[in-house]
Amino acid sequence: MLKTLSEAFGASGAEQEVRDYIKNAVESICDDVYTDNMGNLICFKKGKLKGGRSIMLSAHMDEVGFIISGINEKGYLNFKTIGGIDPRVVIAKRVLIGKNKIRGVIGDKPPHLTDKNNNAALKTEELFIDIGAKNKQEAGEYVSIGDYACFDSKFIQFGNGLVKGKALDNRIGCYILTELAKNNYPHDIFYVFTVQEEVGCRGAQTAAYKIKPDISIVVEGTTCSDVPKTDETGFSTRLRGGPALSIVDRTSYSDKELRNALYKAAIGNNIKIQYKQTTLGGNDAGAIQLSEAGVKTAVISVPCRYIHSPSSVASLEDISACREVLHNFLISEDKEKWSF
Phi and psi dihedrals of 141, rounded to 5? Predict the structure, then answer.
């Protein structure tokens, strides 16, 4: 399932393939499954406990990508990035374009034909996509302005329990929620697969406004910089260190009591867990936390090296641990002792 989710086409604004796959996986095990006006997939499962809490588990379906902004006379495609993509990772990468998944390669003028500093990252305006067309007319037969594009990258397992693929941020979260939906829990659970997180957490904002949950937990893939030439204080997270709990980032503060409950759900069951050491970036928690009169929200993430690239790397052990922490939290019926 994680392989299929990783390889699925789903740039922000074009999440339909991802949504359809998840819907087919959960519609027979949930009490209600529907898609809202924004394109969020909302799956509700009634809890066994009378008077229990309403819990929103959120994971975004979209990935960073590209949108075609022009076609020149020689058949090369101009494009803009969707979401935060480091220009250094796009040169010579393969992409899939539009609903027919036309293959292309991101190109640039060869370095020996330019007098620019070869170490400088190129701007999007200096790059193009080559689909092998001989001119503008032929390119227009396959691609249209406004088509979305994604990295073309196969999901593989390698090394000691690691996986490589595109869109692990956040198809990992989607996979975990889909697995959790197979279980029955005391409390009412909304499994929410959101759209357009990478361009402003738009889907989460409208979904939380409609659901009005008592509490929310965002399940994410997050930065992992435990690589050479990085000081340990800047690691953010460590691969194989377990899922990471956020304290604060640029868009939200995690609720302290809810975060502590997740931590206890890990430690009490001998599951590895860590805290995210950096405060950069943001995710759907920022939009959910500010919905309506406010929602108590926490974030738990799986570390992903080389995030927002065609070759992100994660640990199967961390993914399993994240699922187990959430499962242990959700089976609790002791709502009277919950201070959140």
Answer: -75, -20
Rounded Cα–Cα distance for residues 68 and 79 (Å): 4
Say whether 63 is catalytic: no
Using only C-alpha atoms, the chain has a radius of gyration, in whole angstroms, of 21
Asked if the domains at 2-63+166-337 and 65-151 fall in one CATH topology, the answer is no
* Contact in structure between 186 and 331 (CB atoms under 8 Å): yes
The CATH fold assigned to 65-151 is: Elongation Factor Tu (Ef-tu); domain 3 (2.40.30)
Measuring CA to CA, how many Å separate 96 from each of 119, 163, 186, 248, 296? Answer: 27, 21, 43, 36, 39
User: With 0-12 CB in 10 A as exposed, 13-18 as middle and 19+ as buried, what is 38?
Assistant: middle
**pTM for this one?**
0.94
Mind listing the pLDDT tens digit of every residue in the chain (340 residues)?
Answer: 999 999 999 999 999 999 999 999 999 999 999 999 999 999 999 999 988 889 999 999 999 999 999 999 999 999 999 999 988 899 999 999 999 999 999 998 766 556 656 666 678 888 999 999 999 999 999 999 999 999 999 999 999 999 999 999 999 999 999 999 999 999 999 999 999 999 999 999 999 999 999 999 999 999 998 888 777 766 789 999 999 999 998 889 999 999 999 999 999 999 999 999 888 888 999 999 999 899 999 999 999 999 999 999 999 999 999 999 999 999 987 766 666 6
Has domain 2-63+166-337 been given CATH number 3.40.630.10?
A: yes
Please state the domain extents for the chain: 2-63+166-337, 65-151
Q: Which of 197, 257, 292, 324 is catalytic?
A: 197
